[in-house]
């Protein structure tokens, strides 16, 4: 009965949160659709980018692959795993490299959205101890996790299951950490910005919902795809209730209770995810069904809607603006310059490092071509350079500049829970600017190749093109940074202002509803118009602060009056052409290559540090370390705590039966959309070419140009799971990712 009540409570809470959110989403959808159509008609006045933008940057490429050890919770043993990171940044774990090469199903597929990468067991234990208050192992007792080496890599999530890895050396740890952080950074940014209606409608709905619960400011768990974000939204409210209900009833030692709590949280998260996905998809479908009629109304009555909105805004402005201006003057304006300086210093250093890394890579390539000569060497280097932006290790020196970002006392004043939102956003901009610079460089160089005669001409052309691209990069990076600074300042100050003004303004907004014509009520909302007025109250100060900062030479920003006219009118036409494949175009291989072989042929962006399967130096815990290839026990671990009415297995299975029922075959994972992944005979460390006077960046690895990839293709589910083949049986414990059999795939959320 208590399990039934728990399942009912989870389903009821999820339904309640999703019901309120879907109402917000429907309202915001109409506003976002109106804004999109208006933007389309009126056009944009922003500066044109000078660099080209690559549409499909990592097609047929693998970011990284290699061996590391994974802790298997079910049998409490460490096993060697072969990990592949494909172009979609999912983590795919195979039994070993041989299983990968033989096209066998992977063991685990993980989407790292919402995870933190920890390199210390102490860091992990601190987070685990705080997740279940009052349950802390006594000193001298065995902790929840022991690592057999000094180089752990732990993926921690506040709601989902955790992943434990380790490697043998510090160099491997640093490389894997950079790769994992890149995966987290990419997966956190899971809401596509290409969607001009659904994306803003969704993010505004999340913000409006949280503000209705008196939760203002940034939110760390706004990460992943839409379903993951909504699941986090539900769990944020549900988890404290579960902790109060279930926590006191957990049995066993402190470590066992912690482990049980993590498993229960993971099981509930999966149940919430399933229900959330169904409800959100239904809301999306309903809005899409109504879209044609709404869009027709907008296009027909655009002028009247704009007039009506401006009339409403003028009335709200007269009521709100005097109060907002006082609030800005007293509580925001004195701190804008401090916030901006805190943002600008690490961000500008990061973008300067991007420029330096790009310059050094191209210069090294040019000098190596001088020493070694030949078009073949150019092709080899260009294949590596073309994916520089997606090389986590080489880009790490750029990304780590953002670690300096500290808002100090400002963070508490403006209710900023964490600076991670701003760090990751700036790092994504850095990667994009690097790829734009590289793509522009290779497009211009490719255009010049037919006109060059000899090695000297080639080297001079490379230098000339590099200088052109750097000028374009300086302009574009200035534009991107200024936009980032403005958005970050608004993201920090607007929630603070809304919270300050709420007691005197929010209760009075209902009276303005009568000013909106009923026919236009889907496209004009009082709440949104009120926020626009508040934004206008501080926007002038923010624009002025960024404008004044542009004058300071140390940040290398262009003034707003500096407009770089398009000096290459045909450059953007070149960017629309067929993507350049340096290896295929200049390798001299016959063109008649079977389509299947071409799909499998891929390059690896980061070379492998350690390709040989290793053995851990000693045993850990109660179980002996299993050698690669040895069978894993299928029986329950004898050391597991005795089952009780509140035991984790019973709770998890009951949750599955209550939530999934007959649809248990569709297993849920916390993984990214798993598009087909190339497989490769992954090479060992690539040979370093003839050394030039300019040496490669410290710690940078030279990617192997000869890696040929092909691999098992997981299903392209939104959750990235591996679906069992038809007819295969699936137990409730397998559904929840609690077993790892010899044949099956351990599906992960």
From TrEMBL:
Domain PH stretches: 61-185
SMART domains recorded: PH (SM00233)
Matching InterPro entries: Niban-like, Niban_1/2/3_dom, PH-like_dom_sf, PH_domain
Residues covered by region (Disordered): 622-749
Biased composition (Low complexity): 689-707
Protein origin, superkingdom: Eukaryota
Biased composition (Polar residues): 730-741
Family statement: Belongs to the Niban family.
Protein's UniProt name: NIBL1 protein
Gene: Fam129b
């Amino acid at each position: 009965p208590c399990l039934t009540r728990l399942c009912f409570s989870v389903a009821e809470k999820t339904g309640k949160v999703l019901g309120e959110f879907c109402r917000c989403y429907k309202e915001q959808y109409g506003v976002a659709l109106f804004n999109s159509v208006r933007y389309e008609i009126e056009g944009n006045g922003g500066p044109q980018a000078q660099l080209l933008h690559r549409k499909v940057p990592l097609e047929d490429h693998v970011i990284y692959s290699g061996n590391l050890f994974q802790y298997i919770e079910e049998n409490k043993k460490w096993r060697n795993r072969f990990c592949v990171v494909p172009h979609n940044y999912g983590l795919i774990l195979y039994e070993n490299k041989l299983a990968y090469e033989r096209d066998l199903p992977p063991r685990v597929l993980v989407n790292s959205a919402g995870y933190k990468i920890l390199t210390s067991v102490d860091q992990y234990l601190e987070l685990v101890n705080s997740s279940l208050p009052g349950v802390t192992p006594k000193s001298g007792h065995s902790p929840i996790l022991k690592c057999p080496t000094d180089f752990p890599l732990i993926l921690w999530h506040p709601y989902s299951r955790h992943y434990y890895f380790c490697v043998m050396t510090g160099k491997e740890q640093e490389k894997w950490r950079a790769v994992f952080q890149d995966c987290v950074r990419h997966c956190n940014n899971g809401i596509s910005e290409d969607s001009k209606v659904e994306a803003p409608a969704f993010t505004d709905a999340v913000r409006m919902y949280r503000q209705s619960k008196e939760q203002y400011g940034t939110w760390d768990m706004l990460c992943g795809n839409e379903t993951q974000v909504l699941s986090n939204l539900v769990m944020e409210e549900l988890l404290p209730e579960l902790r109060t209900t279930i926590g006191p009833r957990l049995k066993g030692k402190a470590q066992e209770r912690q482990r049980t709590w993590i498993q229960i949280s993971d099981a509930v998260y999966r149940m919430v995810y399933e229900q959330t996905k169904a409800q959100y998809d239904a809301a999306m479908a309903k809005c899409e069904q109504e879209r044609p009629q709404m869009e027709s109304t907008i296009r027909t009555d655009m002028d009247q809607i704009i007039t009506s909105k401006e009339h409403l805004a003028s009335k709200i402005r007269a009521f709100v603006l005097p109060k907002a201006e006082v609030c800005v003057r007293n509580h925001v304006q004195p701190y804008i310059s401090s916030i901006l300086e805190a943002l600008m210093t690490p961000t500008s250093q990061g973008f300067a490092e991007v420029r330096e890394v790009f310059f050094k890579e191209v210069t090294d390539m040019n000098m190596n071509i001088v020493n070694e000569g030949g078009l073949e060497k150019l092709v080899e280097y260009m294949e590596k350079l073309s994916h520089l932006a997606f090389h986590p290790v080489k880009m790490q020196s750029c990304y780590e500049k953002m670690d300096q970002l500290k808002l100090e006392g400002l963070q508490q004043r403006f209710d900023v829970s964490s600076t991670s939102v701003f760090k990751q956003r700036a790092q994504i901009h850095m990667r994009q600017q690097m790829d734009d610079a590289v793509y522009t460089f290779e497009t211009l160089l490719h255009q010049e190749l037919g006109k060059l005669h000899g090695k000297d001409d080639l080297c001079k052309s490379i230098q000339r093109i590099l200088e052109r691209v750097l000028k374009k990069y300086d302009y574009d990076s200035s534009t991107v940074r200024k936009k980032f600074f403005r958005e970050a300042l608004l993201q920090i100050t607007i929630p603070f202002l809304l919270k300050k003004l709420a007691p005197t303004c929010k209760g009075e907004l209902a009276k303005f509803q009568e000013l909106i014509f009923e026919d236009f009520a889907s496209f004009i909302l009082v709440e949104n118009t009120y926020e626009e007025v508040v934004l206008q109250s501080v926007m002038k100060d923010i624009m002025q602060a960024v404008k004044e900062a542009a004058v300071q030479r140390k940040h290398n920003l262009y003034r707003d009056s500096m407009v770089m006219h398009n000096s290459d009118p045909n450059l953007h036409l070149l960017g629309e052409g067929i993507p350049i494949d340096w290896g295929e175009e200049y390798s001299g291989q016959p063109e008649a290559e079977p389509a299947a072989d071409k799909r499998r042929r891929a390059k690896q962006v980061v070379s492998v540090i350690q390709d040989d399967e290793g053995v851990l130096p000693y045993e850990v815990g109660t179980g002996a370390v299993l050698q690669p290839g040895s069978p894993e026990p299928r029986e329950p671990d004898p050391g597991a705590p005795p089952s009780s009415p509140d035991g984790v297995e019973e709770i998890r299975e009951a949750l599955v039966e209550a939530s999934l029922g007959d649809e248990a075959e569709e297993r849920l994972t916390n993984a990214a959309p798993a598009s087909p992944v190339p497989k490769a005979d992954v090479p060992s460390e690539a040979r370093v070419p003839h050394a030039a006077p300019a040496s490669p960046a410290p710690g940078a690895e030279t990617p192997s140009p000869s890696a040929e990839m092909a691999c098992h293709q997981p299903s392209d589910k939104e959750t990235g799971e591996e679906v069992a083949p038809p007819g295969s049986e699936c137990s409730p414990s397998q559904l929840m990712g609690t077993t790892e059999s010899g044949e099956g795939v351990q599906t992960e959320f």
